[in-house]
């Protein structure tokens, strides 16, 4: 990557094209038999991983299931939902609360510019190992929480993650953003998706050989939308209920 990448001129962006992608994305419950070309899937997955993520530690993994046998078993683990049964591909989107240490090392190795800024080196070598390490049985997390509570009386301090449970939330936030990029990318390519949390996580993890620490954030059903793929008109609650201008 160019060291001056940040100063490259920005391309013109058509808001109407973006609006079309966002507005036509729906959760699709039935897909046609048409497969998704490999190049399309690869592009969508690359766009997914360009999602913003905490400390650029990229705490995610994607398992793309296309073989009919495994897909059928996975659809069964997704409680037999039509979206899963008819999808051309099922993508298991996994959050990794446990990959931060290896990824912090990798971030130093993969730094895309010739010179590693000292502040970046300090962050990945010293700050991150304190910030994300919860210690055996979460003891370090508890100590950090106590210290944070004391110091926090007089100045702003980070209020977590202070436990292994909060590390799950930490990893899931970034992973969900990647999942959204993936769904919008599929839409931009003319394909569709359905995010699903209706699944048996124990069975899903077994089917994809996922170790204990990985969390299945969503299973995404993906494919070409069938004519009867949308079950109802899209609606949202009144913005005034949800958006607060302060
Ligand atoms: C985390 C999450 C889990 C979901 N789980 C399911 C699911 O298991 N099955 C399903 O049919 N839809 C599922 N959905 C889709 C929602 O029902 C859908 O997004 C919502 O009804 C709004 O419809 P729209 O996506 O078409 O705008 C899920 C969506 C999200 C974000």
From TrEMBL:
<dbReference type="InterPro" id="IPR029479">
    <property type="entry name" value="Nitroreductase"/>
</dbReference>
<dbReference type="InterPro" id="IPR000415">
    <property type="entry name" value="Nitroreductase-like"/>
</dbReference>
<keyword id="KW-0560">Oxidoreductase</keyword>
<comment type="similarity">
    <text>Belongs to the nitroreductase family.</text>
</comment>
<feature type="domain" description="Nitroreductase">
    <location>
        <begin position="22"/>
        <end position="223"/>
    </location>
</feature>
<protein>
    <submittedName>
        <fullName>Nitroreductase family protein</fullName>
    </submittedName>
</protein>
<dbReference type="GO" id="GO:0016491">
    <property type="term" value="F:oxidoreductase activity"/>
</dbReference>
<dbReference type="Pfam" id="PF00881">
    <property type="entry name" value="Nitroreductase"/>
</dbReference>
């Amino acid at each position: 990557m160019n060291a001056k990448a940040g100063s490259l001129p920005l391309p013109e962006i058509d808001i109407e094209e973006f609006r079309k992608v966002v507005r036509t994305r729906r959760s699709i419950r039935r897909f046609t038999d048409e497969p998704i070309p490999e190049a399309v899937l690869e592009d969508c997955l690359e766009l997914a991983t360009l999602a913003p993520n905490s400390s650029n530690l990229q705490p995610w993994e994607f398992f793309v299931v296309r073989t009919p046998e495994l897909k059928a078993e996975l659809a069964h683990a997704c409680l037999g939902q039509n979206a899963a049964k008819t999808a051309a591909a099922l993508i298991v989107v996994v959050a990794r609360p446990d990959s931060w240490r290896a990824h912090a090392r990798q971030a130093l190795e993969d730094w895309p510019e010739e010179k590693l800024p000292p502040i970046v080196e300090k962050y990945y070598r010293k700050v991150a190992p304190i910030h994300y390490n919860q210690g055996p049985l979460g003891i370090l997390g508890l100590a950090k929480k106590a210290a944070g509570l004391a110091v926090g009386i007089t100045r702003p301090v980070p209020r977590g993650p202070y436990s292994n449970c909060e590390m799950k939330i930490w990893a899931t936030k970034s992973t969900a953003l990647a999942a959204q990029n993936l769904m919008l990318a599929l839409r931009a390519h003319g394909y569709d998706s359905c995010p699903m949390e209706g699944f048996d996580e124990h069975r899903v993890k077994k089917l994809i050989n996922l170790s204990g620490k990985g969390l299945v954030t969503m299973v995404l059903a993906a494919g070409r939308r069938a004519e009867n793929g949308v079950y109802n008109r899209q609606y949202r609650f009144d913005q005034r209920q949800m958006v607060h201008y302060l």
